[in-house]
Amino acid sequence: MSMERPGGSDPSRATLGGLGELEVLDRITRRLPAATSALLGPGDDAAVVAAPDGRFVTTTDLMVHGPDFRLAWSSGHDLGWKIAASNLADVAAMGAVPSGLLVGLAAPSATPVALLEAIADGLRDACAALAPGCGVVGGDLSASASLTLAVTAFGDLEGRAPVRRDGASAGQTVAVAGTLGRAALGLRLLFTEGVDAAGEPDARRAERLRAEHPAWIGAQLAPSPPIAAGRLAALAGATAMLDLSDGLALDARRLIRASGVGIDLDGVALSALAPDVADGLELALAGGEDHSLLAVLPDGAALPAGFVRIGRTLPGDALTVDGRPVDLSGWDPYAGWNGAAG
Amino acid sequence: MSMERPGGSDPSRATLGGLGELEVLDRITRRLPAATSALLGPGDDAAVVAAPDGRFVTTTDLMVHGPDFRLAWSSGHDLGWKIAASNLADVAAMGAVPSGLLVGLAAPSATPVALLEAIADGLRDACAALAPGCGVVGGDLSASASLTLAVTAFGDLEGRAPVRRDGASAGQTVAVAGTLGRAALGLRLLFTEGVDAAGEPDARRAERLRAEHPAWIGAQLAPSPPIAAGRLAALAGATAMLDLSDGLALDARRLIRASGVGIDLDGVALSALAPDVADGLELALAGGEDHSLLAVLPDGAALPAGFVRIGRTLPGDALTVDGRPVDLSGWDPYAGWNGAAG
Prior knowledge:
With 342 residues, chain A is of the alpha+beta class. The first copy, chain A, has two domains: 15-156, CATH 3.30.1330.10; 173-325, PurM-like C-terminal domain (Phosphoribosyl-aminoimidazole Synthetase, Chain A, domain 2, Alpha-Beta Complex). Helix content of chain A is 33%, strand content 23%. Chain A has a seven-stranded mixed β-sheet with strand order 8-10-7-11-9-12-13. In chain A, strands 3-6-4-5 form a four-stranded mixed β-sheet. In chain A, helix 2 (21-29) runs parallel beside helix 4. Chain A is flat. Strand 3 of chain A pairs antiparallel with strand 2 of chain B.
């Protein structure tokens, strides 16, 4: 007798539509990490979160299948990890310590619940690895034709002023914590070698590629931004800081505009951080999604752990490398998007 | 000479893809209401929000085109209004005062920016009408094949304990603030009379329907939950409270399970609140999305403004109306969803 109801006796094949909202929520919730800051966690109309110094930092990010990821390339674990990591990096870029996440998830009715469980595991593992004590305080589950993750993160400033983008002045040290250009190189490899003959994302090729180039593909699919370094930069007196999500050149220009200073980058230091490929320096400047931290520190301040000096601030409003103007742009989510699924 | 570049000289026809992320963000941001709680608003990696009593309430909701709304029925203003209202109701249901929103928005590249501007206007007007002082502290913009809104709301408990679902005991008053069954009746009318001959959502018919039945269609497309009543219930000593998003019967059962009490509803009181249609009482019990507040108050407590008595708590775990068991279920986002666009 093996007339199996789809999603019936084999729990790994159960779908959202087959199980219903409450059962799916239950299965996900029990895998999620608790937050030490949660005074009241999931299960009521809203969560209650501690904000010990009377303020909290908060940021939100959406990731949508197609424009932001392809299921042929990213596992559920990767997705949960990446959306946690990118949100935690925004909290860290304010000099705050991540305290909690809210997770919104919308998925097609035919989505296997195992994929959602893997997303929950990725969220849990990213919190444990990058921001211990941070966990999920609540969320929402909805239906959509496109798998969509919407995460909100919270952070605690521990009594310090937030490190904004607009506090840098001339004559200070520009430093970075984390990788440069690796996530972009990983994405380029996926688009060139992780596809089939028709150019469609291919899971087997992507897996092989990841085994060959774990640092580059991993930086794209499951980045590990230096979350703890954000707090250290704030403690070291950082005058400005931001998360490198759209590429060093574009994000440095944001800091330049906000602070009213110029930045001269050190080509040797950049090259040392850049991926070891022919156009590594260009990738280090233009490549997005590393979620590294760009900080400006007072002249003479000791570099906090994890940071490398990559330049200095100057009077003016130019971005230069060894005195020569930089002409690269970053990444726009609408430019060049094609909605092909994967 | 009228060789117009699409989205060029006519700003109302400009699309997200044509304008690019930064210009779209700028156009939306300037329409959004500022929050009085925002110590640092949009424009940095994260916002900084005041949490005067060292805690904050937070909740998140996704709304996706297809399962959650149809653009043939809902204007952009409706969408912004509704997602603000439903999140504010979750904050109110904890007894908190809404302090801020984060808004994530993902849309197809061809979406007119005017639609996003209307969403922003709806968010602004809902905050002004339902929770003055609450505003938007930050957000995210992304691309998706399905228009998706992801809103996170924050609230201030003003030093009070949160009103959870599990504090009710037997012999207390069950009361509701807001409408019952109207949003469900509105949805049923839209599905039966707001469609064309092929059953597809039809904008002209929906508009006519709304003019004929503004209370019912309005409750579905742009509900006005009694946000201020949540704080009043907390001040009156409410022992349990929740937001009626999935229907009185289903949500009352949640309170029953959490608190370990039974609830007997008063048929006369329910009928007085129910829509004046043949199956009004059934709609009042089973219809979701009113976002009204269900509260349990100590015996003898004066009802806070906006609340109507609809029953009492009893020993046991049954939900009854005038002593007779209720057998209705609420709404599941995956059950019965068809992904047809509108």
